[in-house]
Write a structure and sequence with these properties.
Rossmann fold; single chain; 13 helices; 2 domains; globular; two-stranded antiparallel sheet; malate dehydrogenase (decarboxylating) (NADP+) activity; 9 strands; 7-stranded mixed β-sheet; alpha/beta
Length: 279
């Protein structure tokens, strides 16, 4: 959701196809995020998922994942799909700074649980190469974050879009005030689950996760962007989840994977299924 919402930030590339994304951390969770982004590019531009993956690179503990490494090391299956031909670049590819200097990504995503890996040099390079560098430090808890919100804003002179896996408070930097968003799956799963369970979906295709991300991104307001966030306020989670559930359930009926009978008023039908703990 945050990745899609960042496309609407003025100065950033407005299409996923025009982004080059580098992930730091190539565990199954990170690969899962990368795969969903590739699917989103496929949906938006009509290119194959295989072609879309070429926009997305991964780094693990040994450096950049490449075709050359895959041939010599026999990488695990979940990494192989993102092992690209890097012969057009000079190298080296051992550190995050090396990779950012060579590949010039528009977006970096940290899922490594390695604190401090988005160094000052990395962030400064991102700012040098992009009008609006996008920096997502998603590892949590806070002490495992690749960089703090304060560091990201300070090192990019307040030009970056920043989101984190752990919550950060209000940040003052470069004469501006930021309230960065949190890339938390709490935005996704309540609404996704409500929509799927209510529709009694026979299966959960990848397209439903994409629909969920789109529904979340669509709820980021002008005010959210103004405070430096690409996520809605977390206190609006109930309304956000209901909107996501409505989109998911609608897709289930459209794809003919719902066992439930389609109600006349989908919104009210879903509202009745939510427990209210207010007395």
């Amino acid at each position: 959701g945050g990745v899609l919402a960042s496309l609407k930030v003025e100065g950033a590339p407005s299409k996923l196809r025009d982004h080059r994304i580098v992930f730091l951390g190539a565990g199954e969770a990170g690969i899962g995020i990368g795969s969903l982004i590739a699917y989103a590019i496929h949906e938006e531009d009509g290119i194959s998922v295989e072609e879309a993956r070429k926009n997305i690179w991964f780094m693990d503990s040994k450096g950049l994942i490449t075709e050359k490494r895959n041939k010599s090391e026999k990488l695990p299956h979940h990494k192989q799909e993102f092992a690209h031909d890097a012969s057009a670049y000079e190298g080296p590819f051992g550190t995050m700074e090396d990779v950012v200097r060579q590949l010039k990504p528009t977006m970096i995503v940290g899922v490594s649980a390695q604190p401090g890996k988005f160094t000052q040099a990395v962030c400064e390079l991102m700012a040098e190469n992009n009008e609006v560098p996008i920096i997502f430090a998603l590892s949590n808890p806070t002490h495992k974050c690749e960089c703090t919100a304060q560091q990201a804003y300070d090192w990019t002179n307040g030009t970056c879009v920043f989101a984190s896996g752990s919550p950060f408070g209000i940040v003052e930097s470069s004469g501006k005030t930021f309230e960065p968003g949190q890339g938390n799956n709490a935005y996704i799963f309540p609404g996704l689950a409500l929509g799927v369970i209510s529709a009694q979906a026979k299966k959960i295709p990848e397209s439903l996760f994409y629909e969920t991300a789109v529904a979340l991104a669509d709820q980021v307001t002008t005010e959210d962007y103004a405070r430096g966030s690409v996520y809605p306020k977390l206190e609006l989670i109930r309304e956000v989840s209901l909107n996501i559930a409505e989109g998911v359930a609608t897709s289930c009926f459209k794809l003919k994977i719902a066992r439930a009978k389609k109600p006349k008023n989908l919104r009210k039908w879903l509202e009745k299924k939510i427990t209210n703990f207010d007395y």
